[in-house]
Amino acid sequence: MSNSNNNKGLESFKILSFVLPLIFYIGIAVLDGPVWCVDSQSYVSMDFSREPVYPLFLALIRKIFETFKFSGEFKGQPSYLFCAVILQSLLWVYTSWRLGNEVYNVASRYLNLNSALFIGYAGVLSQMAVASLNRFAAKRGSMYSESIMTESIAIPLFVIFTIELWHLHRAYLQRNIVRVFVLAILIASVRKQMLICLILWGFSAFVIYLFINRQDGIHKFFITVLMIVAAIVSIKGVDRIYNSALRGRFVEHIGNSKGGLDTVLYTARSEDAELFKDYENFPDLDALYTSIFEACNEQQLNIEYAPGYEKRDQANVFNSDWAAMASHYAESYDVIGFDIVQVKCDEYVAEHFPGLELCDAQLKEDEVEGILFKTLLKHAFERIKKGEGKAIIYVFTANVLKAFVISVANISPKILIPISFFMYLLFLTSFVLLFLSSIFGNRGNEKYVKDDFLLLAFLTLSGIAINSVVTGSMIFPQPRYMCYGMGLFYLALTCDIIATKK
User: Fold this and answer.
1) Residues ≥6 apart with Cβ < 8 Å to 482
2) Are 493 and 278 in contact (CB under 8 A)?
3) Are 370 and 458 part of one and the same domain?
4) pLDDT confidence of residue 485
5) What are 59-106's pLDDT values in tens digits?
6) Of the candidates 231, 249, 267, which is a domain's last residue?
7) Same domain, yes or no, for 383 and 410?
8) Are 1 and 144 members of one domain?
9) Which pLDDT does position 458 carry in this prediction?
């Protein structure tokens, strides 16, 4: 290819890498308008159970519209929400553009222009492809960028965080540390699930600084640990300051125990009520538990009624239909949490702690849920130690498997389950081949580029694994919780295959 054609190809990429996602995301935003979801009202109303950043983001836009007396509706929703959707979409545009240019810049140091451009376009289109799958193929009615929920900004922020972490592990510079630190605080203040970013940072630093690049490794790892601790303190501080300003209570948001409580209740037993007898400062807690358990049992929301659990304590992911059981668990999760636990705990607090103001009553209910969760969780570990917790292990392993599956595909139709495992096998195979190619190949730019793509693949797979284990054990895996790394997965796979062939 001539230099003239090379320049044209590069110039086209620089333009199209921004224009294509701009047309795509803004076009869908205009087509769909603000997509109102089940959780949207809790963000608009700045509910006590929500993290601070997204409600503040919506409140700021609403305040600007009120100040300048902008009014009206778009697609049946207040016009300020459409402004929020446009800003969210621009964040997705930036993320797609940034990712495409990052991988192109790495690839262009060694690969020929066509291969580098192919990887660059793959980076741009990977995020758009996942969004399209969510919007059209999966028929979810939105692709999250136009939705009024935290995923609308958490997903692109996670991709940006991964890019910055990739930078940090390639160049240990103060500015890179600060960027990762600030992004970690920001994204975890959008959605607590994104505390996985801190785990990813710590795990990757542990592997890289102590086993791979060991020059000043202990010092770098120690600094990383300090930064992660500082980030956790900052995240808690932001949450408390927000609630202090909004509600006059210097506390974190409520509901942190709800997901875990729903999970342990799924495998709990009626006799577990004995754990709550004569609980100090919380009278009749055993009666509350019994009421919750009986309501769950009456609606067949526990594992005893799950398809795929016909073999009872002998059931596991190898001899039973674990996908069917995991689906039953997912269908039961919100019903347990919102229709039963929340209602029963509200009634309990109103009866035993009358006269509390709304905010204090919510805090008391949160405390009750925390006691139920911690007690049942501790008992679950004791049952596992005694060999009596096979149902708990079955639910955990099935949910983690499901999380891995829907991180790269979907659980339905079932043919996608073996396909997803094949994709992981292909990913690991390409990773190993690229690693061997890097070890035994040439030095210079070729090795550096291969090492950079190996690092991207390592961070991507680690992020998916951490998210799968955390979400599979503490919440329940569904596509909007798991698709954070999907585009990165297929991009890293593409990069590894092309870099290996070269």
Assistant:
1) 403, 406, 407, 467, 468, 471
2) no
3) no
4) 97
5) 999 999 999 999 899 999 999 999 999 999 999 999 999 999 999 999
6) 249
7) no
8) yes
9) 98
Residues 43 and 101 in one domain: yes
Question: Which residue(s) pair with 35 in the sheet?
Answer: 147
Q: How far apart are CA 441 and CA 461, in angstroms?
A: 24
Residues 241 and 328 occupy one common structural domain? no
- Asked whether residue 117 carries a pLDDT value surpassing 80, the answer given is yes
Residue 320: what residue type? S
Q: How far is CA 43 from CA 54, 55, 57, 191, in A?
A: 7, 5, 10, 12
Per the CB < 8 A criterion, the answer to whether 344 and 285 are in contact is no
Structural domain count of the chain = 4
Determine which of 10-24, 38-52, 97-111, 436-450 has the lowest per-residue pLDDT on average: 436-450
pLDDT digits over 292-312, tens only?
999 999 999 999 999 999 999
State the average pLDDT for the chain: 94
Do 3 and 128 fall within a single domain?
A: yes
The set of residues, in sequence order, having a beta carbon less than 8 Å from that of 293 and lying 6+ positions away, is 265, 268, 269, 270, 272, 273
Q: Specify whether 348 is located in the same domain as 279.
A: yes
What is the residue range of 340's domain? 258-388
Boundary of a domain, candidates 93, 120, 149: 149
CA 360/CA 48 separation, integer angstroms: 11
Beta-carbon contacts of 42 under 8 Å, excluding residues fewer than 6 positions away, are 49, 50
**212 shares a domain with 179:** yes
Q: Which one-letter amino acid corresponds to residue 343?
A: V
Average pLDDT of the residues in 215-220: 92
